[in-house]
Structures are given as C-alpha cells and as structure tokens.
Amino acid sequence: MAARTGKQFLQDLRDGREIWLNGERIEDVTTHPKFKGGAESMARLLDLQHEHPDIMLYDSPDTGEKVGITHMIPRSKDDIKRIRKAMKLWAEASVGLMGRSPDYMNVTFACFAGHADVWARRGNERGAQNMIKYQKHVRENDLIMTHSIINPQVDRSVAEAEQGGGEVSLHKVGETDDAIIVRGARMLATLAPYADELAVYPGSDIRLQDKKYAICFSIPMNTPGLKFICRDSFSKDRSAFDYPLSSRFDEMDAVVIFDDVHVPKDRVFMDGDTIGYSEVIGAGYWRNYIIYQAMTRALTKLEFAFGLGHKIADMTGVNAFDHVQEKLGEIWNMMEMTRSGVVAAEEGAFEVEGKGVWAPDDRPMLALRGLMPKWIPRATELLKLIGGGGFMLTPSMADIEGPLADDIKKYYQARNADAENRIRLFRLGWDFVGSELAGRCDLYERFYLSDAFRMTALNYKLADKTQPERLVNQLLADPVQNGQDAKIGVN
Q1: Which of 100, 293, 326, 396 is 20 to 30 Å apart from 467, CA to CA?
Q2: Which helix (H) or strand (E) segment is 179 a member of?
Q3: For residue 450, what are the β-bridge partners?
C-alpha cells in the first residue's frame, strides 16, 4: 500500500475506537461536529502528499511504491533537507497550529529504526528488530501515530511507580505466549481521535527497580481495552469566517486508559530494561530529529504571527508608529533566528558514527528548544498589544448579513479595507491569540517539549565547553594579559 489519500484516511478512522467526550462515546469522529473539522484537516495533509509528490513522496526502498518522505531514514544532508521541505508544507497547511501533524511521529520512528542498535543493547535484539519491522509497516501503510509518554499527574513528589499505590502509572501486569498485558494510564495523547496507532515510549527516567513500568510498544487505536478520555473540544461548529482556526485545527488531547490491554509481542520494543528505558532517547539522537521537526513548525507559526501582526497594523495604520514597529520587529527577530537555527541544523548535519545514517546538528535546535516556550507566547502577547481593543469588536457573519449590514459596512471599515475584510482579519487574529484554541496552543507551546527552565538548564549541562574554556585559559596562561608581569608599561 502506498501513501494514502484523505478519503482513504477518513474511511480508516471508522474503526470502533473508544473515544469519550463530555460523557459521550463518539461513534464516528469524521462526522461528529466536535471532531469533523480536525479530521478533515488531517485528511487535507494526506492529500497534499499527492499534490506535491516531488516534495512529499519518495520510492519505498522495499516495494518501490510512493510513500511519505517523512518516513525516510536520512542517508545524507540532502535527505534531511528534502524531509524539511515536506515538513514545512504540512506546517503551512495549519499555519503551525497542529503540532502533531504526522511528521512528528514519522521522524521519531525513522530515528528509532535508524538507530536500532541503541534499542538492541543488553540483549534486547528482538525489541530492536520489532522496531525496524514496525517502522516499515507504518511507512508502507502511511499510518498516522500519536504517543502517550507521560504518566498521570497524581503526586509528583514521589516516583511515578508509587503514584496511586503503583496502579495509576502504566505498567505490565501479566504475559501470555504471544502478548504482554498492561494496565494503567498515560497522557497526553494529542491527535488521539485522528491517529491510526498509539505509541508508548520513554518520556522520563525510571528507577532501576521499576522494571514493570519500563515498557515500550505500539498498538492500533481500536485495540480492546484502550479508552481515550478527551479534554473539552475547542472546535467550533461554525463558519470558517467566524472561527477560521478553531473550526479546523483542534487536534485534541486525551488521557489513555489501558484496561488490561494485550500487546502482541511483535509490537513490543522494550520490556523491563530500566537502564535502556532511561537512556534510549538521549543515546539515539532522537532530539536531533524531533526538535528539527518542531522548529520547522515553530518557524511557520512565527511567520504567520508576523504576517498577521503586519496586516493588522497596516490595515489600521498603527504601523506608522515606532512603538508598533518595534513590536513587529521583535516578532521578526524571533522568526529569523528560528529560520537561521533550522538552516544551521541542516547545514551542520553529520553522519552518525559511521552507520550511514545522518542527523541534523542538535546545537541550534537545543538552543531554540529552550527559547521557543518563551518566544511564541511573547509573540502572542505582542499581537494583542498591536491589535488592542479591535479584537473585541468583531461581529459575526450573521451580523454582516443581518439587518444591521449597512451600519456594519460604514462603521467597521479600515483605512485600506472594507468592513467585511477588516472583520475577517480581526476574527482570524482573535482565534490565534484569545480563543479557547489559542489558550490551549499557548499551553502546548510552553510544555510539549518540556518547560523552558528545565531545557535551558539541560543545555548548560550538554554544552561543549571546550572552546569557551580555551579562550579563558589562554588569558589565564598569558603573563602579559593577566598582569603577572608588573613591569610591563611601567617607567
């Protein structure tokens, strides 16, 4: 099977998965008003592959059929650049709002399979082979994945294995000849209503004694015993004019409950290796790939924010004022530094340890990972200051077409736009900075790659300090420069 179309994707979503929202089990996410917009947006992403096959598809190394290029294990710097072009097209389709577009997990599992030797350590050769076979299965069937890598927030003051008497966090409870049995819960399965498969892999370290919690696997979303409890939907069942973003781009988040779920052993990638569980992400170059994808999307979102701010300021004429120009310039700075970081990551790409697999340079990506949770919320704040009270003065399409149409036409005009286009722009702006979806996206940007505090501190620990120390040491060793020769310059 080659790359799917959007129509095929929507048909495959009708698989009996157990999705819950507001006490109701959702029978069909493709038709339910709270999920329909997101499903159609995901379908649109798959159709884009066929509209831009030269960018988004490549020949499968196994079958020769056209498959998604974000599944590719990169073998050169050019491969990495090709993958980025496809990621950028998908990001632009949602102006960067859908953080879990399919490429997020595609590059993750391409990384895992490309560095399967990391998974094979300490006798886990079968798990590593399962990973390789599974990544091919996902690629050849063009499957969309979500993940749940964090245990529920019960009591963060104790080890995850101790929360709720050890019964809350996901753990292994049994085994058959062909499956392991797991129980517990995980969060945060973003994209759950629209994914084909659910992956479980490490999101944090684990204690050596907690072997039953050290499990990694992937299973179909309709696996018996899986339940997905969704947060409130922020999808608006209204026109795209009124809610141009919320009507289409709520990718949804959910807690996953595993009620004695049987995981086939050929879908298990790790079982009981607490050392491997704690090291597999860092040792396998995962962050190089996933932050590269994340910052490609973040760049798109900042491009959109800058364009939105410029159009609002230009429409109302406030871009004539230097304090507004300064705010727009600040967003541009963020955008350009992000673009530079993405370019630096791919230009600094390297072959990993002679394995024939290439990875982006993670140094600029790590720096951006620490900055982006601050930058995007800051860009949103600046847009609020640029648009001001105009965001609160936005009638709906029903008003525009209603009895007060003439008044709206007169009083809502802008210096270079009629009333309808002014209202359209400000409704788009409000949906980006102030709606329920905007609030969710703000929280997502702050925490989806962990918080800025931890990541910035980690950057210090990971940093190569050789050259900075050399610059300091050369002065400490120079008697002229450090003042040890008191006679120099003295008569």
Answers
A1: 293
A2: strand 179-187
A3: 448
Q: Give the H or E element holding residue 66.
A: strand 66-68
* Phi and psi based region of residue 489 (left: phi greater than 0; alpha: psi -120 to 50; beta: remaining): left
Residue 488's pLDDT is 47
Residue 163: the pLDDT is 82
What's the DSSP call for residue 5? P
CA distance 189 to 256: 7
Q: Give me the torsion for CA of 149, 154, 157, 162, rounded to 10°.
A: -80
Please say whether the beta carbons of 455 and 449 come within 8 A. Answer: yes
Tokens read off for 180: 């392991």
Whether the upstream peptide bond of residue 188 has omega within 30° of 0, thus cis, is yes
- Predicted TM-score (pTM) of this structure: 0.94
| Residue 246 and residue 338 in one domain | no
Q: Which residues of the chain have pLDDT under 70?
A: 1, 479-491
The C-alpha atoms of residue 484 and residue 367 are separated, in whole angstroms, by 38
| pLDDT value of position 483 | 56
DSSP 3-state assignment of 342? helix
b/e for 107-123, b at 16 or more Cβ within 10 A?
bbbbbbbbbbebbbbee
DSSP state of 412: S
In a domain, 487, yes or no: no
Domain that holds residue 217: 6-282
Instruction: Enumerate the β-bridge partners of residue 414.
Output: 417
CB 279 within 8 A of CB 318: no
